[in-house]
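Example 9 (inverse folding). The structure is encoded as follows.
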């Protein structure tokens, strides 16, 4: 999830807010100011309810951020990269670079979130004891944060994907069976089960008069259900691509443009006639300068195509790239995480190929049509003719992307 608003960095991790978070913030502040606090603490001035409501909503999201930060810090400590943390309508997401390679990593990264929420609940509960009058706004605020952190920790421990508890369950099944695929299936089906339960519960609440609360619960159920299914599908896809190297599917003779090529020629000759969606841009010495795609061309008004060189509109180095022996499952993840359609394949700092989403889709489709099982075996026959795998396999591989 991309952040709409950047807040800054903590421990080097960019922290941001997705625009949907603003709805959640407004909803929480409003429901606290007109519902929860007046109901439980009658007799304050209206403005006091609003100030306490807004501060409590800010406190809640600060606690969600601490929860996510704990996931990210453990991920960093276990050697994973962390792209960002984004707060959105249903809470927060830590964008951790790779899937865990070991059950223990996944267990620790997942379990620390709910534990952090429980610790926060205990801290706020301790502070409540220090406030003399329990009926004051400060006491109410601390009590609310204690309860909400307890709920946050407990809800996230539900053993269904994509909740933390689902990841904990997956790591345990993974450790017991040795099969990540089996574990993902179990955790995602349980996750979908919880999703459906929440949808039913939400609809039931809605029908019995709790309109907003019911709608909210049903929405969370719907979100969990969808996320669990997506994770299972991604896992199946990763499984199919695992063990196949980029060199086997890439185009080893990618279309190459000089930076002075006009956008007009790029579109008319290379896109329309030759069917390329993107070209690598290299200087005369064969050094990769960048990549130009139809997305870049679309941003130039057509009247200017003849006079604009691709060098002016290309995406410049440093680009996201892969090495010839990068696993296709990892390459697809780089494509997906960055919303790209193609990746230059680099070896020793030189472009040796181009991998496109279409190459991967074609491979998956052929596999399906030929009824191929497993990643090995007939895969080299499925790779495009003259895939250049031998050529690139001899040179030392470029470092995998970070
Ligand atoms: Zn969590």
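The amino acid assigned to each position is listed next.
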């Amino acid at each position: 999830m991309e952040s709409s608003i950047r807040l800054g960095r903590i421990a080097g991790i960019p922290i941001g807010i997705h625009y949907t978070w603003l709805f959640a913030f407004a909803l929480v502040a409003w429901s606290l100011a007109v519902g929860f606090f007046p109901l439980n603490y009658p007799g304050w001035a209206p403005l006091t309810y609003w100030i306490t409501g807004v501060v409590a909503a800010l406190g809640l999201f600060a606690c969600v951020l601490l929860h996510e930060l704990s996931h990210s810090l453990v991920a960093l400590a276990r050697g994973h990269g962390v792209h960002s943390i984004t707060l959105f309508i249903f809470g927060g997401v830590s964008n951790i670079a790779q899937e865990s390679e070991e059950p223990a990593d996944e267990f620790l990264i997942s379990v620390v979130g709910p534990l952090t929420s429980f610790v926060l609940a205990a801290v706020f509960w301790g502070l409540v004891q220090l406030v003399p009058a329990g009926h004051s706004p400060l006491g109410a605020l601390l009590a609310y944060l204690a309860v909400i952190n307890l709920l946050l920790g407990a809800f996230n421990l539900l053993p269904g994907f994509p909740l933390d508890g689902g990841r904990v369950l997956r790591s345990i099944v993974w450790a017991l069976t040795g099969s990540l695929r089996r574990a993902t299936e179990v955790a995602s089906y349980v996750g979908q089960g919880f999703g459906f339960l929440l949808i039913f519960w939400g609809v039931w609440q809605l029908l019995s008069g709790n309109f907003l609360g019911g709608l909210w619960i049903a929405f969370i159920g719907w979100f969990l259900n969808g996320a669990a299914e997506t994770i299972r599908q991604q896992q199946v896809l990763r499984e199919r691509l695992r063990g196949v190297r980029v060199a086997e599917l890439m185009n080893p003779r990618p279309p190459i443009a000089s930076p002075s090529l006009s956008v007009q020629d790029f579109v008319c000759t290379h896109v329309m006639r030759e069917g390329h969606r993107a070209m690598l841009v290299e200087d005369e010495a064969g050094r990769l300068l960048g990549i130009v795609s139809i997305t870049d061309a679309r941003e130039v008004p057509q009247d200017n195509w003849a006079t604009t060189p691709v060098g002016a509109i290309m995406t410049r180095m440093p680009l996201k790239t892969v090495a010839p022996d990068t696993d296709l499952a990892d390459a697809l993840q780089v494509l997906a995480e960055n919303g790209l359609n193609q990746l230059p394949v680099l070896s020793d700092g030189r472009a040796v190929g181009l991998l496109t989403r279409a190459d991967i889709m074609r491979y998956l489709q052929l596999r399906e049509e030929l009824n191929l099982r497993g990643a090995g075996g007939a895969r080299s026959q499925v790779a495009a003719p003259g895939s250049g795998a031998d050529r690139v396999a001899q040179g030392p591989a470029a470092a995998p992307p970070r």
